[in-house]
Design a protein that fits this description.
By secondary structure, this protein is an alpha+beta fold. The chain is 33% helix and 35% strand. The chain has a domain of 123 residues: Immunoglobulin-like. The protein is elongated and about 85 Å long. The termini are far apart.
């Protein structure tokens, strides 16, 4: 019994000598973190709003750099500016493929030169969220991050003053859920006819 009492006294002495201040400090850290949580949420909201404003500003500056369609409802056309001139894109519809979707377009070359091919840059995905609600900024950013992207080379010439048939492949897309299609076209090759020689290509 005396031995057990001695052990008990020793344990009490050790516990009494422990420094419990770190535990108290840890509680203070938790309290401070809880106090800062609303501020962090507010900052995140402000960041989302700023990203939205920057995106809208970039869209207004490069208004015709891309042509945007809603594949589920659009059957119209849009203006598309390129390095060599302005074109008109006419959207006709979608065709299912085993590996995704085929986009059926006509590309109207409004210049007087033959355009020697180029590169399509594409972004596609679900429909753009409606501009309503306090969480619109967060939903828009989430939607932008969900978009897929890809490129496709156009090897055929685009004849001037006529509609040129174009087919683009969107891997992984579905005709049921594809609600947004954004197109950009890059080319630096044109073909002009000199006065006294064969057609000449310039780059």
């Amino acid at each position: 019994m005396k031995a057990l009492r001695c052990i008990a006294v020793a344990i009490v002495s050790v516990v009494s000598g422990l420094d419990l201040h770190p535990l108290k400090d840890f509680g203070g850290v938790e309290a401070k973190a809880a106090d800062e949580a609303p501020k962090i949420e507010e900052l995140q909201k402000e960041v989302h709003e700023l990203e939205l404003k920057v995106g809208n500003l970039a869209g207004s500056v490069n208004r015709y750099k891309t042509a945007v369609f809603d594949p589920l409802s659009d059957q119209g056309f849009a203006r598309l500016d390129t390095f060599v001139g302005t074109m008109i894109v006419s959207f006709h519809g979608l065709k299912p493929r085993t590996d995704g979707v085929e986009v059926q377009l006509d590309l109207g070359n409004l210049t007087s030169a033959t355009i020697g091919g180029g590169t399509f840059k594409m972004r596609w995905g679900p429909a753009k969220p409606k501009m309503d609600g306090a969480d619109f900024g967060a939903r828009l950013i989430a939607w932008q991050r969900s978009l897929q992207s890809g490129t496709q080379e156009l090897t055929e010439d685009l004849r001037p003053g006529v509609w040129n048939n174009v087919r683009l492949a969107l891997p992984g897309a579905s005709t049921d859920t594809l609600g947004y299609l954004e197109l950009e076209f890059e080319t630096k090759h044109i073909k002009l006819v000199p006065h006294r020689s064969a057609p000449e290509e310039r780059q």
